[in-house]
From TrEMBL:
Keyword Lipid metabolism among record annotations: no
Gene Ontology biological-process entries: maltodextrin transmembrane transport; maltose transport
Protein species of origin: Deinobacterium chartae
Molecular function in Gene Ontology: carbohydrate transmembrane transporter activity; maltose binding
GO cellular component: a single term: ATP-binding cassette (ABC) transporter complex, substrate-binding subunit-containing
Keywords: Signal, Sugar transport, Transport
Matching Gene3D superfamilies: Periplasmic binding protein-like II (3.40.190.10)
A Pfam family this chain is assigned to: SBP_bac_1
Keyword Transport: yes
Leader sequence segment: 1-20
Family per record: Belongs to the bacterial solute-binding protein 1 family.
Protein name, as recorded: Arabinogalactan oligomer/maltooligosaccharide transport system substrate-binding protein
Domain of life: Bacteria
InterPro entries xrefs: Maltose/Cyclodextrin-bd (IPR006060), SBP (IPR006059)
Length: 398
């Protein structure tokens, strides 16, 4: 009887070993966020006896190309934690990431904008981890109540602006099209026309009538309203805000740790609808997603780990580790008293995902050059500037 028992135990152990998964996760995380990831991996290992998770640090700039080249050779990880959604299209087009619908039975807890961002050609290629978008961060000592509309916003900003005293009402980096896309969108501009979830690369809206109006408005911020002087970039704006000299600043959650350290009493709000705009301000949204290797030999186990890493509880603890804005609706609800989460999540909800198709790489350069030219002098030739940018984009795409 003892011999039979030993044989059964040996067979069971062998079967368990045969089914054990050795998972590898690539990540660019550092510090507290890396420690968080390793802790969740340990939690997974305890719940899935025999499975192991190896966390490998890979510099962000190396991940994309290394993965595209290595995955087909069996040299890639099972999961990448995480990929910015605007790089998703290139990975999907290369065939190195796995569609995830069949592994995820319930997607209701993920925010709609995050799911849209991680969907490429109708298929979900990533599980949402965190989101980001710009918003207006304001100093409550200078702006006790945030203005509800553009007229009040302008009055508040101009009242605070006094270069002789070194005080300013509102700053944005006018050279940065990403930061200012919400204005472009409000006036009716766009990058690629969205036709029921498919981005049409032949319909580029960076030089349409709405985009032209947006450039004129951004020019007005400098030369008509006298709010944003020449030379104001993100570093200048940040310094002014941290020194208590700036009332309102269009920036993202990446600057909040510095603001918290100053002990400034701050608020976060969405930019009011610009004058004469056809829609509300809608900034670009960036989403960080967890992706699976299409060549992984442990897809079921990798999917189980992926769901744990992107669960509501994990996103709450991830926020505590690094301050990122969750993509989980229930995690957002649990963090509703966190002013950073509450403020930026409203901006994310109002926003538009950056295009995730490879052709977006053809847009950034000409478009950035265009916004710089459009805000260099009063009354620039917006039509000519944008038409030239459009020609360059179309040539780049071909």
């Amino acid at each position: 009887m003892k011999k039979v028992t030993l044989i059964i135990a040996a067979v069971s152990l062998a079967m368990g070993s045969a089914h054990a998964a050795k998972l590898t996760v690539w990540t660019q995380y550092q510090g507290n966020e890396l420690a968080w990831l390793k802790q969740v991996a340990k939690t997974y290992e305890k719940s899935n006896k025999g499975d192991t998770v190896e966390i490998v640090s890979v510099p962000f700039g190396d991940t994309q190309q290394k993965f595209i080249l290595g995955a087909p050779k069996g040299e890639g990880p099972d999961l990448i934690m995480t990929v910015p959604h605007d790089r998703l299209g290139e990975l999907a087009a290369a065939g190195v990431i796995e569609p995830l619908e069949k592994y995820v039975s319930n997607k209701k807890d993920y925010s709609d904008v995050a799911l849209d961002a991680l969907t490429y050609r109708g298929k979900l290629f990533g599980l949402p981890v965190s989101t980001e978008a710009v918003a207006v961060v304001y100093n409550k000592k200078l702006v006790p109540t945030f203005p509800a509309n553009w007229n009040d916003f302008l009055k508040t900003a101009q009242k605070l602006t006094d270069p002789n005293k070194g005080t300013f009402g509102f700053f944005t980096n006018l050279d940065d099209i990403y930061i200012n896309y919400g204005v472009v969108s409000a006036y009716g501009g766009y990058v690629f026309k969205n036709n029921k979830g498919t981005l049409d690369t032949k319909d580029v809206g960076i030089a349409n009538a709405g985009a032209t109006k947006a450039m004129a408005f951004l020019n007005d911020l400098r030369y008509k309203y006298n709010l944003v002087p020449q030379g104001v970039n993100n570093d200048v704006a940040k310094s002014a805000f941290l020194d208590g000299q700036l009332g309102m600043w269009l920036t993202g959650p990446w600057d909040m740790e510095s603001i918290k350290q100053t002990k400034i009493d701050y608020g976060i709000a969405t930019l009011p609808t610009p004058p004469g705009a056809s829609s509300k301000w809608s900034p670009f949204v960036g989403v960080q997603g967890l992706v699976m290797n299409a060549y992984s030999k442990n897809k079921v186990a990798a999917a189980k780990l992926a769901k744990l890493l992107t669960s509501s509880s994990s996103q709450v603890s991830f926020n505590k580790a690094g301050g990122r804005i969750p993509a989980s609706k229930s995690a957002l609800a649990r963090l509703k008293n966190d002013p950073v989460v509450a403020g930026f999540s409203k901006s994310v909800a109002a926003g538009t995902p950056m295009p995730n198709i490879p052709q977006m790489g053809a847009v950034w350069g000409p478009w950035t050059d265009a916004i710089k030219l459009a805000t260099q002098k009063p009354g620039a030739d917006y039509n000519g500037i944008l038409d030239n940018a459009l020609k360059q984009v179309k040539a780049n795409i071909k």
